[in-house]
Write a structure and sequence with these properties.
Blueprint: H1 2-21, H2 25-37, H3 41-45, H4 54-68, H5 71-83, E1 85-93, E2 97-107, H6 109-115, H7 119-128, E3 133-145, E4 148-155, H8 159-174, H9 176-196
Antiparallel strand pairs: 1-2, 2-3, 3-4
Protein name: SnoaL-like domain-containing protein
Organism: Candidatus Brocadia sapporoensis
Keywords: Signal
């Protein structure tokens, strides 16, 4: 009797551990998007496959931009991330790959910055539902790696686009000269990343 109870107990523990470890592709994508929205890049990395460095480059670029830009600009980047809303619209699963399509509503920061460049006023717009938004669609490809689903590719924003957006924001908020200095640093960072790939 004791042996049967012990076997059942161990089975429950193993099954529970496996079910937690075997998150569905959709759950992985949702956790990744939540980590990016919350600027938790270390957590975001944990959902990415080692097979494609594009996503990692993009996340590292965002971290770098936030490191070299003044707090005023960093606050606005954080607000833009936090305001984004994504929804999975379809999942196509095969044996070892999965395609997930995503519909996003993201802040239209160019329009927002025409209204105000003050982070507190942008927060107020967001709280009142008055922040200008725009639609985007994207797609994540996932593969099984070490027995877990991992994101291997994201169609959507690239490092080049992220660099352009950051430079445009910097020009609007900080002025042309400071934006140019930031652009030069970003270009050097991207070249170093490309060289090390």
């Amino acid at each position: 009797m004791k042996k049967t109870v012990l076997t059942a107990f161990i089975s429950v523990i193993v099954f529970t551990g496996l079910s937690r470890a075997q998150d569905s592709p959709g759950t992985i994508v949702e956790k990744y998007l939540e980590a990016v929205r919350n600027n938790d890049y270390e957590r975001a990395y944990s959902f990415i496959s080692g097979s494609d460095t594009t996503i990692i480059h993009w996340l590292k670029l965002i971290q770098y931009i936030k490191k070299i830009t003044p707090l005023r600009l960093t606050e606005i980047i954080d607000l833009a991330h936090n305001a984004a809303r994504q929804e999975i619209t379809s999942t196509s699963l095969s044996d070892s790959t999965c395609q997930i399509k995503i519909h996003s509503m993201i802040p239209d920061m160019e329009e927002t910055l025409r209204i105000t460049q003050n982070p507190e006023e942008i927060k107020s717009l967001l709280a009142r539902g008055g922040l200008p938004m725009k639609e985007r669609s994207g797609e994540c490809t996932l593969i099984i790696e070490d027995g877990m689903w991992r994101i291997s590719k994201v169609k959507g924003i690239s490092s080049d686009q992220a660099a352009d957006i950051a430079t445009n924001f910097a020009e609007l908020i900080l002025g042309k000269d400071e934006a140019e200095e930031i652009k030069i640093k970003i270009d050097v960072f991207i070249r170093l990343q490309d060289r090390d790939s």
